[in-house]
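pls read this stuff:
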Amino acid sequence: MKVAVISNKGGVGKSSISFLIAKHFEAYCLSNDGSILEKIYDKGKIVEELPVVNDDVNMVYDFGGWADNKSVKVISDCDKVFIITNLDPNSIEKMITSMETLKTYNKNISVIINKIDNSKLKKYQSSIDFIENNVDVPIFKLNQSEGIVNAYFEGLNLLEMINSNGLNKRNYSTIEEQFKQIIEYIKGK
């Protein structure tokens, strides 16, 4: 399994999503973007040069900034490519530009709308509608959640953390279902 998580807009949650996917599958995670990855995950590494990775190694790539020729080669070999966006217009514009460019390298592109704040849903509904009406790839949604933040900063598997006690299960039930959809998609189900 090879998965790329991409955004050329900072602050959208790309690194936390990359980590959560890698941790779930016990995959390696390589990032070209500065993050706490190496401190929280023993299979995580910040790299300047992309190493050659055997096909039998499960890998999640955390690509920040714009992809160069080496990362485009990796992206073209991935089973799934997720482009992360938030609901602000700049983030959406960068997501659409990235999606159109990367479609020439990989047809297995999806979008994750991250950090959806339900208290501001009316404000951002037109952005969600725009994405749903103008993007012709699978779209996943992740609500803004302390569960994601806690799992990332504590280096935990999100679903294991959620199911560790009844309070977490109740508080994070929506994010659990949303994340499971992403996991099932990666598995091909």
Observations:
- The chain has a mean pLDDT of 90.
- The longest strand covers residues 109-116.
- Strands lie at 2-7, 28-31, 44-46, 59-64, 80-85, 109-116, 139-143.
- The radius of gyration is 16 Å.
